[in-house]
Write a structure and sequence with these properties.
alpha+beta
């Protein structure tokens, strides 16, 4: 069920707690003003497969990483900055505009929204789905951003109702022509996340702990994509070494086992958590030959690269979905310091 409301009131109800590129839930006045020029760079990089993280029109470590990856792929000086030579190369893709005005549809505003969203795994296990908390949270993730950015691009008084024109970061893909033999639920997930149907095939994946990035090299050995990641913690360090993809679980359930979490009492009961974008592993789990380790999404995209994980490699849901389309069982995955 969806009840029409305004962007501002939806955010006030705690639609996401998203924090943008800075990774902390600060007030709008404490953050730099959204720059449409920076947003344009982010959007182009996002379309080209060099994920800048949340599309928010601000500089940050994820944008720096994306620029470095793009510069390496184009054989430019690797500065991590929006310098003149990089702008010349990005200018070739200027037809990709920074924002799009889209009229809201009933499908965009619909969903099995979960409010209030329980924090206890035992209560979460009773849910039908670990869906979005609100239509606003769904729209933000659909366009690779946060609710706060949608308010900045529009107004707190913008109504969330069918037919209302809303300005979004231009994450609209060139194609949604996904293979017909894929499960309808997965095809819908990809469409809801605005994932382009055309993705490069990975020859190997390299996760770099120090740079906090996942690099995708194509079968010719060329850097084809790069995404910011969260990679383990002091208690659960990234297992350095060479592994392989053993399987891909789309819209997975999550087996919550307290014995595998150092910060949870072993006396807590196990629980099987239902699928959904707010599942602890997000919309996809890429299983690895290292037991208990995988590459997966997250319900909190603004935290990528800024918090710790329990050892696995965590990406935004939209980036994890893209990586899942690039790999297959047997793809080599290298974890390096």
């Amino acid at each position: 069920m969806f009840t029409a409301m305004f962007l501002g009131s939806a955010l006030a109800l705690g639609a996401s707690g998203a924090a943008g590129q800075n990774g902390s839930a600060t007030s709008q006045s404490a953050k730099p003003v959204l720059s449409r020029d920076i947003l344009h760079v982010q959007v182009i990089l996002d379309h080209l497969g060099f994920g800048p993280g949340v599309l928010d029109g601000r500089e940050g470590q994820s944008l720096t990483a994306a620029l470095r990856g793009f510069q390496i792929s184009r054989q430019l000086p690797v500065t991590g900055k929006i310098d003149q030579r990089t702008l010349v190369e990005l200018h070739k893709h200027r037809e990709i505009r920074p924002t799009r005005i889209i009229r809201l549809t009933p499908d965009m505003l619909s969903g099995d929204f979960v409010r209030p969203f329980p924090t206890d795994p035992a209560a979460q296990a009773k849910l039908k789905t670990m869906g979005y908390r609100s239509a606003l949270e769904k729209l933000a993730e659909m366009f690779h951003t946060t609710p706060e950015v949608l308010i900045e691009l529009n107004s707190p008084d913008t109504r969330l109702a069918p037919g209302v024109p809303v300005q979004f970061p231009n994450a609209v893909p060139a194609s949604r022509d996904y293979p017909a033999d894929w499960k309808p639920e997965w095809r819908k997930t990809l469409a809801d996340l605005n994932i382009d149907a055309n993705q490069p095939k990975a020859g190997r994946i390299v996760v770099d702990k120090s740079d906090k990035v996942l690099r995708v090299f194509d079968r010719a050995g060329k850097l084809a994509a790069l995404f910011s990641v969260t990679t383990g913690s002091t208690h659960d360090p990234l297992p350095i070494g060479s592994w392989k993809v053993t399987g891909i679980a789309q819209n997975p359930e999550f087996h919550y086992n307290p014995k595998l979490f150092w910060d949870v009492s072993d006396k807590k009961p196990e629980a099987l958590l239902p699928p959904g974008p707010n599942n602890p592993v997000g919309v996809v789990w890429i299983d690895l030959s290292k037991e208990h380790y995988g590459i997966h999404g997250t319900p909190e995209p603004q935290t990528i690269g800024r918090t710790e994980s329990h050892g696995c490699v965590r990406l935004t849901n939209w980036d994890a979905a893209r990586v899942a389309m690039m790999v297959e069982p047997g793809t080599q995955v290298i974890f390096q310091p």
